[in-house]
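Hi there. Long-time user, first ticket. I'm pasting a complex I've been working with (about 1111 residues overall). I'd like to know whether the download I got is complete or cut off, because the file seemed smaller than I expected. Thanks.
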Amino acid sequence: MTATADPTTLEIGKARTRKEDARLITGRTKYTDSITPHGTLHLSVVRSPLAHATITGIDKSAAEAAPGVIGVYTAADLGVEAVGLPCAWPITPDQKAPQRPLLASKTVHFAGEGVAVVVARTVAEARDAADLVEIDYDPLEPVLDMEAAIAPGATLVHPELETNESATWVFDAGAAGTGGSVDEAIAAAEADPDSIVLKRRFIQQRLIPAFMEPRSAVCDPSGEQITLWAATQVPHILRTMTTVTLGVPESKLRVIAPDVGGGFGGKIGVLPEEMLTVVLAQKLGKPIKWTETRSESLLAAHHGRDQIQDITITAKKDGTVTGLDVHLLADMGAYLGLVGPGVPILGAFMFNAIYKFPAYKFTCTNVFTTKTLTDAYRGAGRPEATFAVERIMDELAVELGRDPMELRQQNWIKHEEFPFTTVVGLTYDTGNYEQATDQAMEMFDYAGLRREQEERRKNNDPVQLGIGISTFTEMCGLAPSRVLGSLAYGAGGWEAASIRMLATGKVEVITGASAHGQGHETAFSQIVADQLGVPFEDVEILHGDTQISPKGLDTYGSRSLAVGGIAIVKAAEKVIAKAKKLAAHLLEASEDDIEFSGGNFTVRGTDKGKAIQELAFAAFMAHDYPEDMEPSLDSDAVYDPENFSYPHGTHLAAIEIDTETGHVNLRKYVCVDDIGNVVNPLIVEGQVHGGLAQGIAQALFEEANYDDQGTLVNGTFVDYTLPSAADLPSFDTATVPNPAAATSNPLGVKGVGEAGTIASTPAIVNGVIDALRHLGVTNVEMPCTSQRVWRAIQDAKGNATQETPIDTHSPGAGLGSIDPNNPQGETE
Amino acid sequence: MIPSKFDYVKPASVADAITALQQGGDDAKILAGGQSLIPVLRLRLAAPSVIIDLGGIAELRGIREDGDHIVIGAMTPYHDIIRDDLVKQHVALLAQATATVADNQVRHRGTLGGSLAHADPAGDLGAVALALEAELVIAGASGSRTVTAKDFFVDYFTTALGEGEILTEIRFPKYTGWGSHYEKFNRTAQAWSMCAVAVAVKVDGGTISEARVGLTNMGTTPIRAAGVEAALVGQSASADAIRAAAEHATEGTAAPSDADAAADYREHLAKVLTGRAVLAAAG
Ligand SMILES: Cc1cc2nc3c(=O)[nH]c(=O)nc-3n(C[C@H](O)[C@H](O)[C@H](O)COP(=O)(O)OP(=O)(O)OC[C@H]3O[C@@H](n4cnc5c(N)ncnc54)[C@H](O)[C@@H]3O)c2cc1C
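Hi, the file is complete. Here it is re-exported in full:
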């Protein structure tokens, strides 16, 4: 007897613990670095310590003579000087995209750029020899400040481009016909005594994705297909791009992403090191492995955010918003990443957020500097947009003397107005901002906390209370291929799935989504269990290997469920259609009379039936099946949605500030998200908690900074201050009881992977400023460290203090007070 | 972690360790809990030729009572110190400060001797040893000597330990019945101190009769806030008196400026935190 699932207990909605956790938590799994084919040689990269310099000489002799060294290679030695890494997002036809080499040949453009590689028998030998490669540099002026970089006469990062501006991308709702002209809105507001115009500048500091598993690649050149294991979010894209970059035919490449320890966008690229393992494996005929150290990761793996945002909002004095103008400068770093130039553009459609702005314009200039590349980082463009709009809504409320939540309510899209086409032309299919907000306000005790705030202000309490609001939405489930095409994105957005019904009734599901910590195996199994009526345990999710899963577009942009999960549903529907046909044949009934429920195909009005497992076996035996059918239930599907999904939610933060020290304490954080139907509440909670931690980290803890020479000053986890659980309260998270199910997909699901990160940053900063506003503080830059907060209070009091230094090497550096650049603490 | 190549020895006695140190010469390094040395090696900021692991020397580990002193072996890990009844009773400040060091993992490995020998001005235990007038026992080829904490801390990462010498134990006078508190301020919850204040006070009938105050990360060594101590003695343990005394906290300091805090902010913190620490200790 084969078990079928009990149809009364659906898997979807169950808080199942994750299948994959046992192997991940106990370490009984394989990450890329644990894969060492016989005879593997190890690669170490010699990186430039300087941000901008001409290479005047390379002496490899000492390294070549070192124990275990097979060879030391420059780009010229490998014949790859002409090879450039791909950028797949030409945001404008005239975008300037300097070729990013595998190794710098003449000039280095950021500190951390590779100049040579050492191949040796052991990792330690490779690392030792890398220290022996002598490279002479002639320093050039670093280019560090975006505004200075685009001013006339600036030092050029790539002189051949004759500018540091990569591209300027504009969306003007007036011109696009999706809304009004913002220039007119501003002019009208300026002329109208009953309107106001408010301008603010916000800075999105540079962040480091800081995934747990460092990046790694292993290439084995033996066999008909070259195998490349990589700690990547995008095995399929990596395969295609390896072909594009190196010319190895796609059919000769197999890319495997084994278990991958986090990515957050940081593993979305195509890396010089990945390409170098392929080049060297082919050259030497041996497997080559590269695994970065943590310091290399912080230095050279792509960074995120780094924008200057100039925002102008116009509104009637009654609070009705009339226009939003957005001017961005976005730091690309030294070259364009795979999708780097498009990251700020993804934000273009989200600055208007949940509000009914009638007029809107977005202008973004992408700028080159001599810093590490920036590219996707959790939220990619949308956190930046959400931050700016949620901050300026608070500023507007203050300016108009209104409660910030009430002002938002006045301007947001009412639940009865959905579907709603926004000023950028996107159609939000569903949403209910009232529901999420009401629930959040109640959980938070908004009124009670406002009273306490009033009290503390009145008593001049040294600990002041602030309330931070963020009512966010985002567009995710990155797909509509046609929409991506209209943005000149270099790929589609569909996702592929296959279902194999095995002879014994077990199910193998192949997905093109590539999990790196999200719990796909669990959530997708739940979906399939319901779709096919088989036990959860009987479903196996296979992914991340182009031989097993030949087709896919991988995992980013909260797309795995809303796109990849739906592809699985579509494949399951085809399995059922085939099974129905086979069942009708075997049960000698008409197909129209076959009913499917809970894994059983029955003849209407009889007790005759076949379980799906019996049909899988019958198809395998193929002794008896219809003439017009192949003996197989296996099915493939490719799904390309027609719209994004638009999760939303209301996030509230209670912030305590010790005004004597400037210390910020996040006392309470409540969020109520509407992410449509929930497949697994436990996984959702995990995604939200992790997302919140990352968003809060931007607000309070993290920043990657460079000194005036262009050297990264936060090169270890002591200076790059990631928060730990000890820095955060226990979050009060919830999803709404009656979600506004997405209408764009059959499961009614929306993405949740980035929601917490997108929403939380402005909630925190709004709370910090709300706590201090009555003291005269109007802004605190991120991260709102105790020092910055203290200085803001002193400034507001008119007390002059020093500047907050951001570019000093910290005593710290993983080492208490040891400055890695000056370990003995010598004074100059 | 891939440090440069080194030899490794694990002697079983202090004498053997000293011999190994002598043989190793200039380039020999002692390994205690490794919580500072291993990161230094990992980032290749040091490349010793030989590592002498003190982990096999039983006599360096443990806490005992010796008349009016509590004696702690250099290799005693933080974890043991925090939980030790003798320490809690007689040198409570040490237990309090040690409990603020890093996280559980680090506290299982890091040692009191390693922390003091490392002499990082951002380390938490130097200020405690200094304020509590601990004595440090140092063994070398020619025998053993004792130096006061005041003489032990010489400069940034520099102590009175000479070449070929090992810190073997730390002797704390008993502060039985004193009130104490370690007030630590950092950027993230489990990080080094941006600034911290170690306080022990003896309060008799509401009046502070004796005070010991040490500052962390306010100079190139731990600093004794003698001005605060002097201002406290004879005062009532009231908030106003304590705050006034705390204004002396920056006397004799040379606060560093770094990415966490510029000097002026550190100086401000030192005063605020001193007031809080004394209030808590006296309360
Ligand atoms: C993540 C992290 C966070 C930390 N946070 C803090 C913090 O908040 N506060 C804090 O105070 N510290 C902190 N530390 C540092 C920690 O306290 C170290 O353990 C301490 O500084 C060194 O002690 P150890 O036993 O590990 O010594 P080791 O690292 O083994 O040695 C340190 C140095 O002292 C020398 N040495 C060690 N023992 C002796 C001896 N008996 N005689 C002579 N020389 C010796 C060694 O040769 C070496 O130079 C942190 C460390 C880490 C890794």
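A couple of notes from our side: Chain B has a mean pLDDT of 96. Residues 263-282 of chain B form the longest helix (20 residues).
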